[in-house]
Amino acid sequence: MNPTPPRTLDVDDLLDNPGTRIVVCCGSGGVGKTTTAAALALRAAERGRHTVVITVDPARRLAQSLGLTELDNTPRPVPGVADSNGGSLHAMMLDMKRTFDETVEAHADPQRAEQILNNPFYQSLSSSFAGTQEYMAMEKLGQLRRSEEWDLIVVDTPPSRSALDFLDAPKRLGRFLDGRLVRFLGTPARGGAFRLLGAGFGLVTGVITKILGTQLLKDVQSFIGAFDAVFGGFQERAEQTYRILQTEGTAFLVVAAPELDALREASYFVARLSAEQMPLAGLVLNRVQQVHADLSAEQGSAAAELLEATGEHPLAAAALRLHAGRVRQRNREQRLRNRFAADHPDVAIAEVPAYPEDVHDLDALRAIGRALAGVSTVP
């Protein structure tokens, strides 16, 4: 009994729908999320949407694929995009520290903002603390959505194994900044609090001071005192953005390669998005092997053996061997895809073929976009 074919994802319907305001590409690292995000954004723009694509990928692959030398924390217009349908395309790469600095500057008075920005503990937190990148991705996404400058935002999520970390980051960073240890460290060692807590407090802070050093403890205390006034706004905006991600105007696309580990990760993402009540549009299966001849792997191998036995036409024999290998690979990929589809029958799938060269310009991105939409699947 042949397996039921998976549902086909209608990418153009998704992109053309004015109700779609945010498309989030998520998946494990190395499966083509950045290229997928860029191709979707370009296709949407050339079909008439005013689109911005944001990446948090430090490898700068998005800039390269868009034919740009660099991207920064401000959306920049992408040259060469066809605008005959009235659309436009901007692109940006998240600078988490710059975003953090801009947010502090926007939501604190100048004196308090300067105090926070110059604080050594803040400088370390804003550039290297685990979860800051994902938190700032949420902050920037919220800023772009509130600006109403674009009618479609395409997000390329962080290249980490758990690419849904950006859903947890606001809560995690909030728990850290509002946690007992940070609050304890932020309590002044002298004054009313010290008298109320008594000598026990002094003993504990003495131990912590030996571990952290007097200056770091002072930096933490100074940071907490200055940051208190703006922290509530950070959390509120992150929660607002989280709620936006749960609305029908958002569409999550899980991106995977036709490999066992990648599709296992994809299954995890599908389950997690369902648990978080995030709207899943479908699965993008990248780098799918294409075979353009009606010749089975067995037939190809047998024909290659005959040629090799005669010693004639070695190039033809090698081509037949290569074809047989590709057919076997395609068959493995189809089995994995069908297994995923059987486990997740409600998840629509779009397939993108494996291309012989890396994507590095708009024409290549257009080809990826056509493949996503099912218009062309020939590399």
From TrEMBL:
Pfam families: ArsA_ATPase (PF02374). One of its GO terms (molecular function) is ATP hydrolysis activity. Residues 20-288 form the ArsA/GET3 Anion-transporting ATPase-like domain. SUPFAM superfamilies: P-loop containing nucleoside triphosphate hydrolases. PANTHER family: ANION TRANSPORTER ATPASE-RELATED, ARSENICAL PUMP-DRIVING ATPASE ARSENITE-TRANSLOCATING ATPASE. This is Ion-transporting ATPase. It comes from Thermobifida fusca TM51.
